[in-house]
């Protein structure tokens, strides 16, 4: 399924980011390779999951540190080798098929291939009958599938997804999850955020757990859910993170390694 040479691995070293005078990402060092295929980033609200994804994709430049692709990484190459799907679909005011064709045009695919490729991806995402429907007239679930279709039609090596099922009903979420699985089977590296632990268990090959702008744990999915090494990660899995932090305060134990009890998602 991969069209152009993969830009992977992706390396981040000592990455930091500030927002409103506060540091929201601190000392992020990580590498992303073709395997394990599906990396899911989890953590409480305000942990910095989406911001990390935006930095990886190139939407947001870091204020500190280095973000570097190992393969071809000029803007033209990256526009064809990596895609991103947001929590809320970002679509153009045109038909479903025109949205897909525009992605092919921007990525530099030959014009004579546009229609066949667009028809194929709309079929695979279950949107063929909506090809001429204005994107804004689709249901929210259909819009999210269209966003995925547009991301996948360029045959990316890497697909970033920012909580792609957060606002979907269970049936629509299942369809999107199946498309993600199909992409992974086809050789696409998946890097996504999720707030849904059940979904994470279903999809993830490896887990990155974030808290207050830092990566606190990274482990294979099975190991993370059965033997997490970090107390915060264990509390998060158990749905007890807020309780754990309050208990630590009263016991006089360190809350999370930062030495304070900020709850605004910022790193000192």
How many domains?
1
- Helix content class: 25-40%
Mean pLDDT, to the nearest integer, reads 89
For this structure, the CATH topology is Rossmann fold
CATH class: Alpha Beta
Tell me about the largest β-sheet.
Answer: 6 strands, mixed
Helix run count: 10
Form type: globular
The total of beta strands comes to 9
**For this structure, what is the CATH homologous superfamily?**
P-loop containing nucleotide triphosphate hydrolases
Strand order of the main beta sheet, please? 5-6-7-3-8-9
Terminal CA distance reads 43 Å
The portion of residues forming beta strands comes to 15-25%
Q: What's the order of the H and E elements? A: EEEHEHEHHHEHEHEEHHH
Radius of gyration: 19 Å
General description of the model:
With 268 residues, the protein is α/β, with parallel strands linked by helices. It has one domain (10-251): P-loop containing nucleotide triphosphate hydrolases (Rossmann fold, 3-Layer(aba) Sandwich), CATH 3.40.50.300. The chain has ten helices and nine strands. The protein has helices at residues 49-57, 75-81, 96-107, 114-124, 140-152, 170-185, 197-203, 221-226, 231-237, 241-251, and strands spanning 10-19, 22-32, 38-42, 64-69, 82-85, 158-162, 189-193, 206-211, 214-220. The strands form two sheets. It has a six-stranded mixed β-sheet with strand order 5-6-7-3-8-9, with helices on both faces. Strands 2-1-4 form a three-stranded antiparallel β-sheet, covered by helices on one side. β8 and β9 form a beta hairpin. The chain is globular and about 55 Å long.
